Amino acid sequence: MAKNNEAATMQATATAKYVRVAPRKARLVIDQIRSKSCEKALETLRFSNRAIAVDVEKVLRSAIANAENNNGLRADDLIVKAAYVDEGPTLKRIRPRAKGSASRINKRTSHITITVAPRKEA
Question: For the whole model, what pTM was predicted?
């Protein structure tokens, strides 16, 4: 049982909440880095054309820093164990339309979570 607890503590997580991008768009970028080494994931994000790649890169760098500072792991040995996007609260706005009517605009937000772990563990 002690090995399972020890293994769980050797991974590091970082989360960005309330990011102003639709989760569907963020998942396109997150799916590209899942289960890659951290070096490859950072390289993929650096050359991505999507605007959300900047925010995902920040979260990944934060997770790597958490692993180095809190668990004493080396960045070279880390891989992206889990990466997912959850839906945050939706900002509801109104747009005026013809004949005095209105339509709703949903401004969606995302919660981005990335977990990194040593290569042998994941």
Answer: 0.87
Compute and round to an integer the Cα radius of gyration of the chain.
Answer: 18
DSSP result, 73-115:
--GGGEEEEEEEEEE-PPEEEEEE-GGG-EEEEEE--EEEEEE
Contact 85, 112 (CB under 8 A): yes
Phi, psi of 34 (to 5 degrees): -60, 135
Instruction: Provide the 10 A C-beta neighbour count for residue 62.
Output: 17
Confidence check: pLDDT of 111 > 80: yes
Other C-beta atoms closer than 10 Å to the C-beta of 102 total 10
Among 1.10.1200.30, 3.40.50.2300, 3.50.50.60, 3.90.470.10, what is the CATH number of 11-118? 3.90.470.10
- pLDDT tens digits, residue range 25-46? 999 999 999 999 999 999 999 9
